Amino acid sequence: MDKRIAIVTGANRGIGTEVVRQLAEKKWKVILTARDEAQGRKACEDLAGRGLDVQFHRLDVTDPENIHRLAQDLKADPGRLDVLVNNAGVLMDEDRGSDRITIETLRRTMEANFFGPFQLSQALLPLLNRSDDARIVNVSSGLGQLSDGGGGYPAYSISKAALNMMTVQLAEDLKGRVKVNSVCPGWVRTEMGGPGATRSVEKGAESIVWLATDPMIPNGKFIRDRKEIAW
Ligand SMILES: NC(=O)c1ccc[n+]([C@@H]2O[C@H](COP(=O)([O-])OP(=O)(O)OC[C@H]3O[C@@H](n4cnc5c(N)ncnc54)[C@H](OP(=O)(O)O)[C@@H]3O)[C@@H](O)[C@H]2O)c1
């Protein structure tokens, strides 16, 4: 059987790098993307040095030109994708409530956490359509839950709630072709989560990798620890 092929955004560090590692350990071919070329190549070389099938491609998810170029390059080689992991994300709220958050912060957060994943998903659909088991995994957050969202990070929460609605819309419109789910990794010790977070990156990546690889996953759900949670 052909190797399964995944692409992961924001994979030069944190949960993204770990998702690439876990997928590649399962003998997948993984395209590791990052907006910083040097950091992305370094992460890729570290994994490839362990014998893993990992390739680098530069991608700033907020740059439409980058997205177009990536889609063109992947169309030429490898010509198909099985899984897109929309992992790249920013948290820039700086302790401001929704009464004081600047529109600039809101816009920049939406660009990275919502418009980027949206445009990238659309651009890579032709390649996902060539898979017999295509999936999009949107790395969201409990802070984006409408049912439990008040956590003091308004721009971030709004962007992840929008990402979740993107999951719902795409899951419906692509039914039978691509499974689309949101996932909360939990509170993870990364640059974003900070050193006091309760989870390792290995644990944070677990449900993301499960949604990418398990034969029996749902469609159009919000998942944490392999279980459905409320929107
Ligand atoms: N850590 C947690 O507790 C936690 C909890 C819930 C959800 N999440 C979500 O999990 C995902 C991964 O977060 P993390 O904890 O691994 O955070 P992280 O260590 O801060 O990593 C974020 C990654 O996203 C990349 N990124 C940001 N903007 C980008 C852009 N425009 N284009 C491409 N890449 C971009 C960063 O690249 P640079 O290095 O260039 O900045 C970095 O590689 C995010 O979507 C986050 O919202 C994390």
Walk me through the topology:
Layout: E1 5-8, H1 14-25, E2 29-34, H2 37-48, E3 54-58, H3 64-76, E4 83-86, H4 103-128, E5 134-139, H5 154-173, E6 178-183, H6 201-213, E7 222-224, E8 227-228
Parallel strand pairs: 1-2, 1-4, 2-3, 4-5, 5-6, 6-7
Antiparallel strand pairs: 7-8
The chain binds NADP nicotinamide-adenine-dinucleotide phosphate.
Protein model, in words:
The structure is a single chain. With 231 residues, this protein is an alpha/beta fold. The protein has one domain: NAD(P)-binding Rossmann-like Domain (Rossmann fold), CATH 3.40.50. Helix content is 42%, strand content 16%. The protein is built from six helices and eight strands. The chain has helices at residues 14-25, 37-48, 64-76, 103-128, 154-173, 201-213; strands at residues 5-8, 29-34, 54-58, 83-86, 134-139, 178-183, 222-224, 227-228. Strands 3-2-1-4-5-6-7-8 form an eight-stranded mixed β-sheet, sandwiched between helices. The radius of gyration is 16 Å and the shape is globular. The N and C termini lie far apart (37 Å). The mean pLDDT is 97. The structure holds NADP nicotinamide-adenine-dinucleotide phosphate. NADP nicotinamide-adenine-dinucleotide phosphate (NAP) binds next to helix 1 and helix 4.
Quick recap:
The protein has 231 residues and is an alpha/beta fold. The protein has helices at residues 14-25, 37-48, 64-76, 103-128, 154-173, 201-213, and strands at residues 5-8, 29-34, 54-58, 83-86, 134-139, 178-183, 222-224, 227-228.
List the defining traits of the structure above.
231 residues; binds NADP nicotinamide-adenine-dinucleotide phosphate; eight-stranded mixed β-sheet; Rossmann fold; alpha/beta
